[in-house]
Amino acid sequence: MDVGILAQQLFNGLMLGVIYAMIAVGFSLFFGVLDVIKFSHGDVVTVGAFSSLGAVGLAGGLVALPPVLALASGIAAAVTIGALAGVIIGRVLVLPLRHAPGVNVLLATLMAGTVLREAIRLGVPNGGNPKPFPALLPGGVIKAGSFSVGVDSVMILAAGLLLVLGTHLLITRTRFGLAIRAVAQDGEVARLSGIDFQTVVLGTFALGSALAAFAGCMLGLYYREINFNMGVLLGIIGFASAVVGGLGSMLGPIIGGFLFAGVQTLVVVALPVSSAYKDVIAFAAIIILIAIFPTGLIAERRSERV
Amino acid sequence: MSSIPSPIPVLSPLRMQRHPRAVVVLTVALLFAGGGLMMHAESQIQVLGLLAAFLVMFAIADRTPLGQDISAICGDYSGFANGVAFVCALGLIVVFRGEHYTLLMLATVALFSTACIALNLQLAFAGIANFAGAAFFVLGSYTAAVMTAYAGIPHLLILVVSGIVTGAIGVILLLPVLRTRGHYAALVTIAFGLLLRSLLEVNDTLGGPQGMKIKGFSILGLDFNRVSSIGPWDVSFYLPYAVLSICIFAVAFTLIRRIERSWIGIALDAVRSDETAASVFGLSIARWKVVAFLIGNAVIGVAGAVYGMMNGFVTPNGSGLGDSLLMLSIIVLGGLGNFWGAVVAAMVILVIPEKLQAIQEFRLLIFALLVLAILLFRPSGILPRPIRDLSRFIGRPGAGA
Amino acid sequence: MNAPLLACGGLTMRFDGLVALDGLDIEVGKGETVGLVGPNGSGKTTFFNVVTGLYKPSAGSVRLDARDLFAKPPQMIGRAGVARTFQRSRLMLDQSVFDNIVVGALCRLDLGLFSNLFRRRRWCDELGGMVDRARALAHRFNPVIADRLFQPAGSFTMIDRRRIEICRALIGAPRLLLLDEPSAGMTHDETRQLMDDLLAFRQEMPDLAVILVEHEMDVIRRVSDRCVVLNFGRKIFEGTFDALIANPDVQTAYLGVSQ
Q1: CA-based, 20 to 30 A from A62: which of A165, A194, A212, B288?
Q2: ipTM passes above 0.95
Q3: C18-28 and C6-15 strand pairing
Q4: What is the pLDDT of residues B326-383, one digit of tens each?
Q5: Yes or no, beta carbons of C116 and B263 under 8 Å apart
Q6: Closest residue by Cα to residue B138 from B258, B301, B334
Q7: Based on the domain organization, do B78 and B219 belong to the same domain?
Q8: Which superfamily, per CATH, for C6-258?
Q9: Is residue B160 part of a domain?
């Protein structure tokens, strides 16, 4: 096969991997601090994408902003509204239901995701159809032999990688990260040693959701099109990545995200099937990966006391 | 039991105690009459009025001593009440014998209620979250579509095969996640539902997005689609389907109710509420989860096959995550583990959007919010699951469902 | 003592780095009651979890009669005749008392799909028998429980829930019963009552072997034939209660700390 196309696929895989990792980290963080799966997480990605689109549109409608400022306002809106959505879902649904049977939280967050999705579909003008996303990053193409990649794509990838790295450092090196890890280790003990449990939990929800919302923004910039339904697939891929990597760990979901993207890209490259089957393959990959690694690469912490 | 004298003399607690069966018959008949009117109603005012009446009745049953007495009597005579309900359902069919739309509605509610009882078996008893209920339902329809294309196969056999296919696929999905806890089954079923839908949409042998035609049901040479009269009456061709649907519902109801009220039901409850304790007492977690998931999906598949045959076609449209979530909404709203609760909720969720065009577009949003409210404020649902009181079976053999 | 009922040899359990059980040898004969004591974290509950198969031990052997139960799945061990209670009550609070108790005997009942669904007459007979047994058992511990057999377990007090749990463990006619701190959360008198009931019941099952984890030394003294003391997952003493009290090692490890 042509090296250029191979490199192109590798780049696509990396891009997918970083986006999946950004979403998976959230799942893992939430599971870490509260032992819950928050299924509305995928739709927070969509909320992020639509918020930035809205902000860019709104700002552009009022004053002719240079692309850099439009981009900044878009990112700011995505991160703020995404984090807010995460905190509200955490405060109103997840915390009150934390002692209910696990399936109630699952259902509640799925329904919350449905509410977000439907609100976007019904609330955004013509929201049921795909929406074009403006190109806000500098154009230009980097060429190396038969491999060519847009400067904007490289910037998006770099931003994603930096954010994943930054989150990792935040969790492992800062006081806030220490508090998160303490709560994840044992919420009761953390509370007794003076950590404000609720603040840490909601902070974690804000952090994970902001990351996911930023991923939504990146998706818009990369694919130039967003759609109210995009969060469903991303959510379950993110969750599957977190599960395969190891729920509750920090590195696991990142590895899981890249692993998942790798498998998906590999199958598309290696198997001679039409691109119409892309989603089918993604879903089949989820089921097969879960079947192979039902408890994750980095084993899930067993917290149950008998 | 309350001793407050009722303002209505006929309904004094004493008289009700003396004629419990009469109370049951009147209550069930009243509920079915209301349900029938709801399905038949055409103007939005009527629908809203009936909805308000239902809410008032619910409030009475839930909050007043009189209503609680009546509920208790219906609970004590549940076997009798179920029999009365079956007769009332057939009665509705007789009353609406010529009305295509009402009968279609009735059959649809019966078939979705069947599927929801099966979901109850999986979620409320065994604790397996099946987020692909609609996918299994549609899978049943597709199985029927493929098989009715061959003329020689008896249609009753097609229903059985549809059940076997959906049941088997469900077990294959469940096996890898059996060793793990709750949320993985949820993930796998969500992925399966989405996989099935995209596969059906891109696969041309199964008709792609347009779906497939399905031949009508026929048994013993009676083609349901050609029925136009019974004796002196002109009837809708939906009538035999409505009867069939009610019968399927009755069979599934009896089957799953018996599972609940047997050693298996207790085993399922034990497995759901505490896997550790259940396994210490010698119960195989995997075995019971597989049994519940298998039977549940098989029942959903059969209901889906009948639904497909009644409609004459099937498309990938009904198999999405939204539809599966609607099914779960039905059982959460109705009350996890309460079968009649599921029927009431199925009426609300299936019929009301059809009647109130204004909310059709918003139905997913409205029901999602409704489920959130239920989960937060009344997690046991509209009709909470009654405690399993096996004392009624001691020395009363034959008293099934 | 002839061949012991339960024989554990060199039982070792490691949780990444932490050694919870360290080459433990414990034998229990038919009809014997062994009191298992030791400070918090000395491995008593871990020992129960290993014997019942909830934890997979790292090394050693577990035999019930001649049957190898080492690292077998919990349901197999449960069927072999090992029953237990838990430190924290684990009942189905929404289900009836009868449902909870009968869980302990389910694996000995006919769980076939066909016989449960279609042979209802036979099933009702079986049910009648089980209800009688559950009622008789519950009556022994508290007549009130027997009278309210079909009310939710959650409507009972803590001590009654514990009694229900013991009934659940006994109804399957186990050969070995593991009691994990039955006195937790109870007053002195309540504990005494519970132990008296248990001792009385024991007369009817002379072959039943019991291992009792308990902090209340009074309880241990009254019911156990023999005591085993654990510390850091190792057996540091084995013998009668009087010898236990006199033993200096035990005093430094356990009693010395608490007194």
Answers
A1: A212
A2: no
A3: antiparallel
A4: 899 899 999 999 999 999 999 988 888 888 888 888 888 998 999 999 999 988 888 8
A5: yes
A6: B301
A7: no
A8: P-loop containing nucleotide triphosphate hydrolases (3.40.50.300)
A9: yes
